Amino acid sequence: MSNATEQQEREFLAEVKEKLTLAIKRIDDAVRQFSDELREKKQYIHEHQSGMDEADMVAADQSINRMAFTGGAAVARKHKLLKLGQSPYFGRIDFINRDNERSIVYIGIYAFADQGQRTNLIYDWRAPISSMFYDFELGEASYPTPSGIVHGNIALKRQYKIRDGHLEFMIENDVNIHDDVLQKELANSSDDKMKNIVATIQRDQNAVIRNETASVMVIQGVAGSGKTSIALHRIAFLLYRFRDTIAAKDILIISPNKVFADYISNVLPELGEEHIPEMGMDELARDLLEKKYKFQTFFEQVSTLLDGKDLAFIERIRFKSSADFLSKLNQYLLYIENNYFRVSQLQVGQTLVPASFIREKFMAYHRAPILKRFPLVVKDVQSYVSLKTGQKLSGQQKTKIWEAIPRMFTFNNVLDLYTDFYRWLGKPELFKIDHRLIVEYADVFALIYFRIRLEGLTTYNHVKHLLVDEMQDYTPVHYAVLSRLFLCRKTILGDVSQTVNPYSASSAEMIEGVFPQADVIRLYRSYRSTLEITAFAQRIIPNPNIIPMERHGQEPTVTRYNNSNQELEAINQLITTFQESQNRSLGIICKTTRQAADTYDALKAPGVHLLTSESADFEEGVIVTTAHLAKGLEFDEVIVPFASADTYRTEADKQMLYIACTRAMHLLRVTYSGELTEFLSA
Ligand SMILES: Nc1ncnc2c1ncn2[C@@H]1O[C@H](COP(=O)(O)OP(=O)(O)OP(=O)(O)O)[C@@H](O)[C@H]1O
């Protein structure tokens, strides 16, 4: 790039910064004025309160609220401008349209306009025109607008890295794009929160982020393909694109655990959006079962699986995770509707209510959940009787009808019907409920499904977009529940290779079976790990379709120690080395909760944290945890201890090992004593 060009760019940056400072000052002045006015107004009301009637008070209140709201919006705007001051923009395209008009489009996290000249100095990355930055190189380009597609040419394309207001570097994209900047971004060390990727969103990712039409979008992406990042950017995009109809509070993220929720909590605020409501699947279950049943959590189910080999337990899980299970549940519901309402004629006083009348009414309410039809049928029977007799019913007669009708149905509570389902199926052994009445995790969503179908549950109508991460962990029954409760658009993402329970994993195809209208997107490029780490993880679970980034680092190591004490000593050494390095996060990822707790106790070094299913935050530094909890997270360095044949034996263990290794961005070390697991010995 010529010196003159660079000079021009530096001048432009200085000008933008100056204008930002001015805009911030204007906001400060306005906020000061607001708060003065607000104070005066309050003072005035206070002094004149006695002379004001109800209407005056309401009007005064409203005007105060309005002022406070405007003041709040000004403060939020200032916050954004301060952020822009740190890094005003990251890209530029010069677009020449068919009328030969040139638009210079600088792109940043938010838009910023020059008030004086009424021009846009910086465009929001989500603006229609900004999409060309991600979608095109130099030459022909186009972008969609509400009034049609605009065609033209990109004459110039640049990328910038501006940090703390200083231009660190600038790249002219004449040939191959993005890669330099992307490489630099990926080489950075990771802290305790997920980062935004607006400056380097890739083309296939951009298509997912900006998709406006899909009612259900299923993203199957390999480890580190940016699924979670993309889903969050998609939310930011939708909030921008549909800002008149969707607000942050209308979105719900269903996340696997609190730590993950904490880990991703930064991305949307960084993009200028408010915090999005979030909920765990277990939390949702607790809500829907209204504390009527106690149940095993998903985390406990996985721990039980990893601890031993209870074949019957596995069999129960396997069956209840199948699409066949869902269809059997549906068949049973149809069966009881047709067979369990055993009507007989009912005598009320002198009147005989014919069985056919009662059945006909029961069937006529086919839109209502079965257990909710009885009160409706009762009302009809009452009307029938009073019409026949020409008299009002006595209290006794009413009671008789209220008791008799529900009794015609074989069962009238959900748990009894659910138990009966297994009898009907001829497999009563598939339902186990322990003496403390704790329901197994595999039954939880089936029970909820029964509640929905038999009793009806209110839907989450206020939610306008649902985001479900780690889709592979949920079964057809989960999705049947979600689709009945959330009638809104959905983004569902995950990776079938990263399941923590191989007996209940769902693929994109299976989810497509539940949502036939879904757009299914597959992502194969992996960004997180160095090529060496990705190649290493491929030895555990090969995926010929994965496309690793051309980013190199140290070859992962597999080291044997004579015993676990020596192994722990070596890990202690590695922690010291890490603490002296530039890297900011180190994950020591074990298979089981017990191993993680023991390792943590044995290490007891300062700055080492234990992450459990109870933890709420993801802390920077050294973290000891399990593969299950580390799923979705990433670390600069990862140590996978105890990788012996004893620890990693089963299919479930293999998955855990894969998840553990794919958490590493730059450095991976595997340690063991005894014999190495067969999953790594090939
Ligand atoms: N376009 C991109 N530019 C810069 N970094 C990216 C890009 N896409 C992904 N990344 C980075 O790759 C890493 C993995 O992203 P993310 O965690 O979203 O992937 P994922 O597919 O959800 O991973 P996993 O399923 O393995 O948990 C993150 O560090 C993210 O910042």
Automatic annotation (TrEMBL):
Q: Which residues form the UvrD-like helicase ATP-binding domain?
A: 200-530
Q: Which GO terms describe its cellular component?
A: cytosol
Native species of this protein? Spirosoma arboris
- The protein depicted here goes by the name AAA family ATPase
Is the Nucleus keyword given for this protein?
A: no
**InterPro entries referenced in this protein's UniProt entry, alphabetically:** DNA_helicase_UvrD/REP, P-loop_NTPase, UvrD-like_ATP-bd, UvrD-like_helicase_C
Q: Which GO terms describe its biological process?
A: recombinational repair
Keywords of this entry: ATP-binding, Helicase, Hydrolase, Nucleotide-binding
- A Pfam family matched by this chain, by name? UvrD-helicase
- Write one Gene Ontology MF term: hydrolase activity
Q: Do you know which PANTHER family this protein is assigned to?
A: DNA HELICASE IV, UVRD / RECB / PCRA DNA HELICASE FAMILY MEMBER
- Which residues are noted in the entry as ATP-binding? 221-228
